[in-house]
Amino acid sequence: MDTASRCDPHFPNPRLSFWLSALVLTMTWSFSVTESAAPIQLRGEVGGKVTFRCPVAKQRALKFVYLQRRKTFVNGYHMTKDLSVLAWKNTRMDDDNRTIHMFDLNMSHSGDYRCVIHYIGSANQIVETTIHLAVTATYSKPALTKHCSDENRNFSCQVTCASHGGYPGTEMMWNVSGTQMWKVVNSSEMSNPNTMLVSSSSTTYINCSNGGVTSLSCFVGNITSDTIRVCERGKPKDPSDYTSPYVIPAVCAVVVVSMLALLLLWWRRKKGQQRSAAVPLREVEPLNENKEGIDAS
User: Fold this and answer.
1) Who's near 17: CB < 8 A, 6+ residues apart?
2) H or E segment at 230?
3) Which pTM value belongs to this model?
4) What single DSSP character describes residue 70?
5) Hey, which bits of 31-110 come out as E strands?
6) Alpha helices, DSSP H, located in the chain
């Protein structure tokens, strides 16, 4: 049974397809076959569509033309038989009886197909042409993530680039400009067993000890990431050069609280002075020098 017929919901019932395909094939067993020299190359993308053009001679009367994948009938025309029940549900044949459209492509549709052609009046001879379909998928735009550290006073950065949903598997590559030493420390290509689509990633290590700034980007196939800059600080002279993002807000908060405390202290002292000025002075009774008990002389 053909791989595509197992994986794609567009195809007819496999058991029915098997017996009808066998019926179609029995009509060609007794014929002599003439194949074309070079296969036709056809490309498509996942989710897209392609057109198979069987090389039917327009000036000749056509008895039948079949598009087959190995032993599986895909679509076609016969002058006396209705083959629509056999046709793959994601295919459509034009009225010219030589052009077949296939849509909703997935990776299982890749492979070799054959156009089997028989003209009226050509006795028992048929003509076969091989068409190779290569289905690809475009990778997503690579995304970059970086992590820089200063372990053991050795300032360095690791940058990871990742992209997904592509086919065929393609290695992630790097564009790096700058004076720093760098190397790729990890690369991988992971294939989804259901969709056959590939995720590609790579991680590079950059030693920032030489100072300066390094610009880098990555690409998979012809899809390139944005460009980022690393090592913008160079190698720090002291670990204290790395300032936590929480330090500046904390310092500002301390300054504000200190200013408020000073203002409160000033206000309280000012208030105390105003209260002291508002208290009336007591009159002191003058000393009577002639009072008894005091010698006037």
Assistant:
1) 5, 11, 72, 73, 86
2) strand 228-230
3) 0.62
4) T
5) 32-35, 40-45, 50-53, 62-69, 72-78, 91-93, 99-102
6) 3-7, 14-26, 247-278
Q: What 3-state DSSP class applies to 68?
A: strand
Q: DSSP secondary structure string, 138-200?
A: PPPPPEEEEEEE-GGG--EEEEEEEEEEEBS----EEEEESSSEEEEEEEEEEE-TTT--EEE
**By the 8 A CB rule, do 225 and 143 touch?**
yes
Q: What is the pLDDT of residues 184-195, one digit of tens each?
A: 999 999 999 999
Long-range residue pairs from 144-151, CB within 8 A, at least 24 positions apart, any chain? 144/216, 144/217, 144/218, 144/225, 144/226, 144/228, 146/228, 146/230, 148/208, 148/230, 148/231, 150/236, 150/239, 150/242
In 60-150, where do the E strands start and end? 62-69, 72-78, 91-93, 99-102, 111-119, 125-136, 143-149
Q: Give me the amino acid identity at 107.
A: M
Tally of CB atoms within 10 A around 46: 19
Encode pLDDT of 30-46 as tens digits: 556 776 658 899 999 99
Structure tokens that stand for 81 in this block: 């038989």
Hey, what are 23's tokens? 């019926």
What are the CA-CA distances from residue 165 to residues 42, 47, 189, 193, 211 (Å)?
21, 12, 11, 12, 37
Pairing outcome for strands 156-166 and 198-207: antiparallel
β-pair partners for 179: none
Q: How far apart are CA 200 and CA 149, in angstroms?
A: 25
